[in-house]
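Retry 2 of 3 after timeout on previous attempt. Resubmitting structure tokens to design endpoint.
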């Protein structure tokens, strides 16, 4: 992925920091991304002032000062961990004022990638518990990576797995998957799970017409091969394996990403990933994927 927008300075990798072990692990993961792309790493902590229960009440200045002091300490700890892992990496610290989501969304305007831990404390409570993760995916201005599962294993040797449907967003995910696999020296597994039926009983009935199903699957495979051509031409050294399965998207992706070092999906989907941003598929992947999840937004094409 290009690290410049063509005219301005390099777009940094941004990692959210909140003092949790998960956030430090995510920062190390982000440092590897920055190192591979020759980009600076920006560590961000948002100091969100709590709202008193009574409007007439005012928080003491010492309380606000303590919040800022904790934030600086957590940023320093994360920087130390990152530099121990990646000596010589350019690391910037950003103590922002405001809510975590609003702060990360704002810095994402000039970022190449925003990385957050799967579970957080302090500035990023309950990152996967509902609106926070969804807000970052839907409101951010660049791709978002949620690091969970083997977050401490930054050099996990598995493949990069890409989930594909028929959407434009998935084309961006394919491009990102090729580039991630190339930069990591990893294999690429492209998974397209499709069901043309809204219930298992309908699928069971349709299985009587095996020839028709095989024809549909052949067309799905041909379409997928055409969509992969550009990535193969740009990254001929990447070993690619394609999986076209008559299965539910969540189940299939979780299976093939079980040993992966990264799972890549688009931010919006059709077919196998209907309602990717707000629907049950994205929620299931955020909660249950055992490897880092990279959600690629359409704006990524403009940023590269």
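Retry 2 succeeded. Sequence:
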């Amino acid at each position: 992925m290009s690290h410049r927008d063509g005219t301005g300075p390099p777009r940094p990798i941004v990692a959210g920091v909140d003092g949790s072990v998960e956030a430090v692990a995510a920062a190390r993961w982000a440092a590897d991304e920055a190192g591979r792309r020759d980009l600076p790493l920006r560590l961000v902590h948002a100091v969100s002032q709590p709202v008193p229960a009574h409007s007439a009440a005012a928080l003491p200045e010492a309380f606000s000062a303590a919040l800022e002091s904790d934030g600086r300490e957590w940023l320093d700890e994360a920087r130390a961990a990152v530099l121990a892992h990646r000596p010589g990496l350019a690391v910037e610290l950003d103590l922002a004022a405001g809510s975590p989501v609003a702060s990360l969304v704002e810095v994402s305007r000039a970022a190449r990638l925003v990385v957050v831990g799967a579970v957080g404390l302090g500035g990023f409570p309950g990152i996967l518990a509902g609106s926070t993760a969804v807000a970052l995916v839907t409101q951010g201005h660049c791709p978002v990576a949620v690091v969970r599962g083997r977050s401490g294993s930054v050099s996990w040797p598995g493949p990069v797995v890409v989930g594909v449907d028929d959407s434009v967003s998935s084309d961006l995910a394919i491009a990102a998957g090729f580039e991630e696999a190339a930069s990591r020296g990893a294999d690429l597994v492209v998974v397209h799970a499709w069901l043309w039926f809204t219930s298992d009983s309908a699928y069971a009935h349709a299985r009587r017409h095996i020839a028709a199903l095989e024809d549909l699957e052949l067309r799905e495979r041909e379409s997928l091969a055409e969509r992969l051509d550009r990535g193969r031409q740009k990254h001929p050294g990447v070993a690619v394996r394609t999986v076209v399965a008559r299965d539910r998207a969540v189940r299939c992706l979780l299976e093939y990403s079980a040993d992966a070092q990264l799972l890549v999906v688009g931010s919006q989907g059709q077919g196998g990933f209907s309602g990717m941003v707000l629907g049950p598929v994205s929620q299931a992947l955020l909660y249950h994927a055992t490897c880092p999840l990279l959600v690629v937004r359409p704006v990524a094409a403009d940023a590269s």
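Attempt log closed. The beta strands are 13-16, 41-47, 91-97, 113-117, 144-147, 160-163, 188-193, 240-245, 262-266, 293-296.
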